[in-house]
Amino acid sequence: MKLFMKLTLQWRITILVAIVLIICSAALTAFSILNAQRTLMPLINGPISITKADDNSDDIVIRGIDDNEIENESTRFGTAKRDFDLKSIMVFLALTTVGTGLVYFVSGKALRPVKNLSKQVSEIDERDLSQRLTESLSHDEVSSLTKSFNQALERLEEAFNRQKRFSASAAHELKTPLATMKAGIQVLKIDKSTTLEEYKENAHMMEASVDRLTQVVNDLLIMASPNEETDELKEEVYLDVMFETIFDELSPVYEYRGITYNIECDAISFHGNAALLYRNFFNLIDNSYKYNREKGSITVRGSKTNKCVSIDVEDTGIGIPAEHIPFIFDAFYRVDGSRSRKIAGSGLGLSIVKSIIERHGGTISVSSENVKGTKISIQLPQ
């Protein structure tokens, strides 16, 4: 069996069909030989001869046969029977041989798309996942398999590209504060007459860089292993209290911009990880402040059904262009495409938000209109 499984699919099909063909042909040949024997033996051993009365008449004459004639007829019929048996066996062998060859040829033709598919798959390199398999015009199983494989390649290519962007962005986020710290140290080493104020300035700059590094690392840890912090999702969370606390914390920071807020939810409560949910909505509301216009507004709505809790965070900010919406939850993704620090942040906020929501079994979606504002909608199961 192990040897059989090592054979190619074409050979396995050929062998299996050949076995069936041999069994059927052997049964048919044996039946023919036995049937011929049953039919001929009474004539060989019979004591009568059946002949026509004459060439011009359809009448028959039945007469007895003497022993010499019986022996001669028996020999002749025996020879004919052996010839019949031999020819039957030869035809059986010829048909099974030709049939097996035809099965191998036809199965090879039928399996050619599979061989071509296997060849194309083997040529795909992990460094270039943009290649696609050639889809046939037929609607058979091979065509369906090819389409499914191409769809899998598209998902893999997207995942690899996201991973590459993540690696490049992470390297940049970690490199920038390290470069700042190194520059400060080099200045102190070169300048022999550094004053106390300059030392303090460099120390402050390094502390800020360390804080930034720490924040990035902590955010990455939350994204990489959310389970470690969300083993317990049974704390009772009150939405109105949580939102009031968040706005009390953030509104003084952005007071100079004149942004107002409105909380539209009753005393809604549900179960989850209070600390992570607080951080989740803190990030969303903080973004609504950061990307809002002067004297804009932020509205938070909450509602509850038997199955889920729905929360909307809506602002009157600058909005998100449609082409960027599919990527805003990617780690380090920034809509402006730059690394400027005009608006602080590492680009991990929304990635963390999505990670926390999914850990709670919820979903998150975005609707936005450029220059008019953005609405983040969250559904959390009860």
TrEMBL record:
Residues 169-382 form the Histidine kinase domain. Gene3D superfamilies: 1.10.287.130, 6.10.340.10, Histidine kinase-like ATPase, C-terminal domain. It is an enzyme of class 2 (transferase). GO terms for cellular component: plasma membrane. Signal peptide: none annotated. It comes from the Bacteria. Pfam families: HAMP, HATPase_c, HisKA. PANTHER family: SENSOR HISTIDINE KINASE TRCS, SENSOR HISTIDINE KINASE YKOH. This is histidine kinase. It comes from Alkaliphilus metalliredigens (strain QYMF).
